[in-house]
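Illustration: Cilia- and flagella-associated protein 43.
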Amino acid sequence: MAAAGEERRRGSPQFGAEALGGRRCSSPEETTLEVSWVQGFSNKNFGFINNQTVCYSCGNYILFLDIKTKKTTALQCQTGQVGAFAVNPNCGVLAFSDRKLNPVIYIYSFPELNKLTELKGHIQLDYSLLAFSFLGPYLASYSSFPDFVLSVWNWQENILLCSESQPGVEATSMSFNPMNWQQLCFVTESSVTIWCIERNHDEHYLIQNPVKLPDRQGSLNHHKDLFFPYSCVEEPYHGPVMPVSAIAGLVGDEAETFVPRTDIKPSLHPTAHCWTATSDIYLGCKEGYILAIDTKKCSASIIQQKPLPEQMRKISDVLDYIRREVQKKKGGKPKALRRTVVFTMAFCNEGLYTAGIEGVLYFYHIRDLQYEMKICTDISEPISTLIFSPDYTILLIITDQGTIYSYEPAHGGEAVKLLNAFSSYLLAADFLTLGDKYCVSVTISGGVQVWLLENGTCLSMLNLDIEATAMACCPSSNSVAVGTKGGQIYFIDITKVEAPRVVHRSLISKFPVLSLHYDQSGQFLIVRAMEGYIFILDARPSKLFQVLGYVVLAGEVLSLSVVSDFKNNIVEVMVLLNVAEIQQTRLEIFCLSSTLMEGIDKYVNDQGMLNASAIKKEQYDLEYPLSSAVRLKDNIVYGYCTCAPFICKYNLSKQSILEDPPVFLSEKVIPSNQFGSGFICLSPNSRWLASAAKDGVLFIYDTSTMEILAQNYCHSYEGGGIRSVVFSLDGKFILVSGESDGALVCLKWKKIKEIEVKEADFHWHSLLTILNKSISDENAVLRCMAEWQIESESTSELVPEEKSKKSPLEPSNAAVTEDGNFTSLHSDSTSEMTWLCRKTEKVIREETERFANQKKELQMGIKKLHKTIQKMMHENEQVPDIEKLEQQEFNLDVEEQERAQVEAEQEVARIREKIEMEILANCYLQDVIKHECWDSMCVKGRTVKCFHIACEVENYPLKKRDEEELRTLEKVLHLRKFEAANLKVQKKVLETKSETILFKEEENTEEVMADDTASCCLVGSLSSQYGADTSILYHQLDLHSREQKVNQIVLLKDVIYKVKNAFNKEFDVVAQQKEQEIARIKERNVKIREILGQLDLQVEVWEPGLTCDEKPEQVLTVKDSEIKAEKYLTPQEREKAEMLTRLEMERHLASLDSERQRALNDMMGGVLEVTQEDILKIDIPPPYFISKPEDEWNDQEKKIFSEYEEKVKELNEEKEKYRRVN
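Result:
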């Protein structure tokens, strides 16, 4: 691949100070950066610039791919990210727009890459579409929000020919007719429009011709005449023909665009289109249809599939069955070959090629609105774009996953893969050891790519199928570590750059891995995780990437910097923390010695945490809030400030500390021209400091003087800025990846001081001298390691949220199997637990085994003590009361009990206060509602319900009319009287006497006819029959001015109020009648209950009543029966209630011991007067011998029995007389 700087000739886009908004380097003649190569992918905006070169946009660049040599050339947009993009292979030109305010369209030639012209319009924000005409120097552009303007340009003469605004219309595609540049197809998500460019001398006009699309069922007859719908009715209609808008009462613009809701049928949704050689259009739809559009008639027709012969139908069914089975094995839903969703299409003389989400390239041979379909090739990936080369020999297939294939229709066969790019945003990039030949990048979706550093050729790709969060290359071996969101780290062997492979995976914790850092010696891998956790791993493959321990810091870790001291064999780690307690950033520095790897057990506790004595922590609280910090070897620290655009310099050797509170002061503050959040990165030789931010501009500083050496506008603010920056070990290259533009940019020095090159080269060779032996040894071990299988890891990273929130130190008791989240082909379920969980579980298990005897003894002692106390309490119950102990005497911990009681009382007091506040709030809300909805109503809302039928009638709740409303009503009434008097005077003046007499006669005759009709038809209401006076209203046809309409509204409100008031009066009469009837029924029920009591009949008597709807004031009072909870009594109320109960009991006992009451009971049965009712209630007791047989009775007993029968007979006669009387 040729470098971008080498391919450009004079006039090609270069970076200068003007392109960077006035930013200037200190010495541009000595040090400058240039783009070496750019890699990236965009699944849109592709085009052939000639028969063997494809170009597409990526971030700030247009990339040109030679499909034969597979080399890439880059053209850089000087003003930021590339927006819309189009190519014209006939003229060898391309056009693209930038994404700044008031964007500009640039026209460049190929292969010279010279800028031909700039098209400047009046667009405010962005262009969404560009399209070249195949004939003539014409370019169409369409802008997005807020303009939505379609424009046609003559790009050679830089003239805007014509434009048309379409507010709110968002377009999806646009193209010129290849045979006629004066026709333009404009497609949105729900419509297709053919724009015709009419010309009159030098004037051009755009004429819009919308195409009527079928509905979703494929019907073409749903566009009926909506203006005169009766004209298409089969049954004859002899009345006046009126438009639908007139029937609806609409006028103006609404009348022309009105469509009844029942006639609205959603049409098809276009997805792709292409022109034919006959100036017609083929259109693909989301619903699976393919339409043929006649551009002359602007009509669409559905293309139907031609019936297949019997043999071809069987083959098609077999292929359909095979495809469904393959989809089932892949775990997806089976899809048929027919009715596929077309996402892209391309036309040639042989026929139509289409593709979609199924990943299959179809060929349609169309004749007379019928087609024959065949499968050309199966990509097995969703296809987004199909493009023919200008000579129609090569069909380019672009997938959503970032892969580019070439297909030759003339030869058939399978598609050939041209480029295997990445489908998601780049996460990070780094240089592979030795740092001068290869580099590695990783995407968020887990795709790892190996690039040739010389020209950016992609050598290989490995898909981990995980959500990656970090990546770093090891200096001591050709291994790459990739961190994931699930806390896993994948170690990849790239000793063979053409075949990378995963050799190990380490599951450290459930926390996501935020960043990975190797020290320069390649001994340690420092892992930054969530919650302030930093894990230390042995970076050497010979030690199987052993986890050494971890450190927990008090705060959120913002950034991490590693410095290797080769003389003392020590690695110093500097961590930048955001401490929430003090609202400041803090630097914490700890050391890692090589002795840690010799005997790690000496320096960690049982849970794996490194001892403080082993790492020698230091802390520095900083005066400014920083987002990133790096440390040099001479204790110099640079930090990127978040509150203002500047870089702070700290010297940790000098005690520059501000007391109260103790804050470490900065030695120097360097202003920065960048904006947005950013970070800084240090070169391996500590000579250069890179600063990157959201604006996308990369600044390189000299660390000794902090002067700007170079700058490069490699990414843009619209693309999210810069995500990562890394220097090569030899200092010759810089890899910069964007946040969300998908571009990986490799920069190299174009001009640099010779001394800078020598220093970087010397440092690189010195480092290689130290690492050569380690690299060879570790690579040998790495090659011998078995490949770790990742097929079963497709779902291993899906860690549930509730598990991820669990503390990493908490042991896991769930058994993990191969069907679980973390599976492995080389280990059992216990080894798939996190390293932290295994450590914690081991500590708990060892402690349980160590203290098992003590635990058992304690349990036995507690049981024995419990039995002793129970025995003592039982004995205490048996002794006399004078010898009994209180219950609290048996409490072993009185203080704990008192503390618990105090806490319980405090909690009760808190809850009581909370409840009281809630009650107070509810009381206030009750008062507000009562005032608004009850007190303010002069007529309360009520209902009248039937006794035995589920029917009810409601009245009209009315508010009292305020004084202002009454004054307005009185004013309008006086005005109406004046108008009536004025009209009467005018009639007297203008009419003659004879006409007046004639008018009176006619008026007398019309009054009789109008009594029944005028009140209903002309007045328009029956309110006059319900207590309202409608004579004061305006006639319906006399309302002309706005004042008359307002007055009519006031009068109508008064009529409505009077009608409601009249109804309420009748309602009150009916409600009063119901209350009287209820009182009458209750009076009768009293007598009925007495009779039922005399007859000893247990019959329920129906008792009518008024519900809350009929008597709404009942809702405002709460009865005791409605309260289900027991009433809470204060101690004073409880004491008063007990006293009243005691007095009532004493009074009752005293009444039982009264001599008067005893005499009354003995003499008269407890009553002073015996009524006849009481006598009739008395039953005569039978004789005592009634139980003996009658033949055993003596004469005396027979006489007594005859007297008993006479008394019973007399009593029954008296009862019968009493019943008849009452």
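Reading the tokens back as a structure: The two ends are 123 Å apart (CA to CA).
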